[in-house]
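Q: Is it fine to ask for two folds in a single conversation?
A: Yes, each is treated on its own. Send the first.
Q: Here.
A: Result:
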Amino acid sequence: LLDEGRKLLESSEALTKRVKAVASGWEAELRIVLDSIVPFEHAIEWIKAFDTLNSPTRLRFSSEVLSGTWEALYSGRADLLIGSRLDQNQFASATGLHVQSLGRSMFVFAVAPTHPLANLPEPLQIDTIRQHRAVAVGDTSRNFKPLTFGLQTGQAVLTVPSLQAKVKAQLANLGCGWLPCNLIEREVAEGQLVIKETEEPPRQNGLCFAWQRGNQGKALTWWTQHLSQVQLDLQANN
């Protein structure tokens, strides 16, 4: 009974501290949605820096794909978005979002060395690529119009749940497609994937972070200020 009483007392004291912290401007929880293009390894360093504040705010990370990240922020399921600049940035003015640059990423067209496209002369023609199945990551948006990336009209598609799954599918010669340079550097160096030039140049994609205008707690303020000093260059492993 005494042991249980101590546990209850400790829980009560911890709850009291959290209530006081929230009353002083710290959020009880900060929900951060990461686009799958941003490796979680980058977030680890940001979390370590945040931990030095001894903040009572709990961090909750989730992952979405393409417009799914913007929908999470727009619908209120997330407080902070870290990911790609998309056409959804048109919502920034309509919905009162802050959007700031975070860097850039680059995609290249890659296939397994045993894929029929691997030994064809470059640049690959769009009509030629269309004849082979593409591997695509499914947009996780529930209500926004789903986006596609690098697919050709009439092309067969294998849809997978994440960029990591897309890399594995292309390594297994299940299809072709555009992949972020930073995720396949080792596989290219070891000859497991072959980068092919196409009629289209390598695709550069802007990165950003975004949050809703209005009341802003201390945790969100810290994260937006910290990220404003970060510039990610996902053209190679960092």
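Q: Second one now.
A: Result:
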Amino acid sequence: MKKPGLSVGSIVMMLVTAFVVVGMAAFLSLIAGDDVYERTRAVFGNLAEQTAERETAEPTASPTKTPFFEATAEPTAEPTPTATPDQSPKTITIAAAGTIYAPKAVRESAQEGMDHYDFTTTFEGLSGALADADLSVVTLETTLAGREKGYGNYNTSPQLLDALRAVGVNFVSLATERALDKGYDGLDITASDSMGYAGVYPDGVNTGAAMLNVGGVQVAVLAYAYGLSDEGRERTKGDSRGVVALMETQRVTRDIAQARVDGANIVVVLPHWGTKNRAQTPDTVHAMAKRMAQAGADV
């Protein structure tokens, strides 16, 4: 860009002109006197001095144009390290024993007084198999409704649970044909005394699987009974409230699928089925087991 002001050539021409004019003024002074010479010298001499001063002055900086938009570099933030999810496999142990109830001979061996029983020795041989597992399950085929309801094969002293806890049991299935032998209030007492349980819904609302966090693994437990005893049906009008989960194909498959939706990693189903005192498995059991597996049950 060309700097503002006079060029070198222009300055030289002006100086030459000034000298010529001064020279002419000197010549005229010889004719007209010193007055003309002095006035001419003052005008053109000052012009020459102003020109020299402007050339030696500091150059004026060109104005800086401000851009309409100027991107400002943001400081680069240090990336925050993200914790890597633990992808290591988790291992849990599930142990399951069978049906638990207390017939007369067992009750008499455990009785220590009118209303006190100690079943510890009855189950002490199981401690090695159940205590070391993360989840230990049994099916409780008896109510714990108290002496007022009458002890018998399927109504037992609540000390039975103390003995089960002592050998490591921490979950029970209450879905058996005997669940309502002592009516709805008998089931309420049993459920309130129990540890975690599945298979019954005392308020009559099917809330699905019992969801357990076992060593960081979400385990869903479902339990079902094939039906009710005559006594249970008579006391509750065939379970008019629907508190016992019955082994109906549509219900079972729906509950298993819902457990998966609810986040279960493992689905365990505890069906109370089969025919007592017969070694051969009924075809109905084979068919139901296949349907459960197809629906997503793991155990």
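Q: Anything structural to flag on that second result?
A: Two points. The beta strands are 94-100, 135-140, 171-173, 196-198, 210-214, 217-225, 266-272. The radius of gyration is 52 Å.
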